[in-house]
Amino acid sequence: MKNAIIKMLLIILALLMIGWAHRNLDSYTLSILNNIGIFAILALSYNLINGVTGQFSLEPNGFVAIGAYMTALFLLPADAKLDMFALVDPAPIVLKMHADFIPAVIAGGLFAMFIALLLSFPVFRVRGDYLAIVTLGFGFIIRIFAINNPAYTNGALGLNDIPPYANFLWIGSIALVTFIVMLHIVFSRYGRAMKAVRDDEDAATAMGINTFWIKTTAFMTSAFFEGVGGGLLASFLTTISPDQFTFLLTFQLLIIIVLGGLGSMTGSLVATILVMGSMEWLRFLDSDMVIFGHHTGAHPGMRMVVFAILLIIMMLFARKGLFGDKELIEILRDKFRKKAKQ
């Protein structure tokens, strides 16, 4: 009972902080927080299939694209679609699609979840590197589909003037919900089954665990939240195109979950703040600086070089990431027990 009250108070405090930030912070700071919130949703969901379940999947950019396009098509009015689709007229079903913000975001997540269900049958017939190759191909297929089907996606031109409903109040709240849901999954019997599949799939099968269903459940859950994150991204940026959903997006998420610790949701959250925040905070390195009275000149991309060096140094001293495969509460509890024994 006491733990439940503490958890509820922490959730209320987090919501109050999100509300305060939404009302009081400037637009520049809020844009950074919005970016962190969206990537937190994507990293948390990606870590469920890749870290907790141990399936080396490279599919996030595909599901993010699905969620982004579905949400955008639901939010855009029919007149705007007719004006926007320059190559060919929009398909009749595209003109009929319309929903409010939250239903549109959920619809994007559900469609990504449905695609994940269909994809799970061929995908989970293989393991390891082969699984990575299959899921990597899925991301390319989605991008090629978006380019070559202008009646549904407006082709390479993408979608513009998407209604900007995604503010920090929504993004922060959904990121908090994602974090809570992922923690509940990790500590549930399904989470323990996912970890068993990660540690030794053959042993898990021998113990009576339906490994295909566990992997499929993790895959679908991950796809749903990646689709939701894609929908928020579309509304936040107000414009999307196929070039935004390349493998680079998956690579960014992979960096985050490896840095935070494969299997640690707390680690993914902290790593998202570090990675996305650092990429913005180091922006001054790209511009002209004065060091000891000398102008260095502008060097675009220098912040990425410095960030990569810092990342390499951090991974050399923490090969399992910041938190390994444990949550922060588990680490604190272990330290408390060690001190109590001493």
Automatic annotation (TrEMBL):
Top-rank lineage group of the source organism:
Bacteria
Record's protein name? Amino acid/amide ABC transporter membrane protein 2, HAAT family
UniProt xrefs under CDD domains: TM_PBP1_LivM_like (cd06581)
Q: Which GO terms describe its cellular component?
A: plasma membrane
Cell location: Cell membrane
Q: Tell me, what's a Pfam family for it? A: BPD_transp_2
In which organism is this protein found?
Answer: Nitratifractor salsuginis (strain DSM 16511 / JCM 12458 / E9I37-1)
Organismal lineage: Bacteria, Pseudomonadati, Campylobacterota, Epsilonproteobacteria, Campylobacterales
**What kind of membrane protein is this, topologically?**
Multi-pass membrane protein
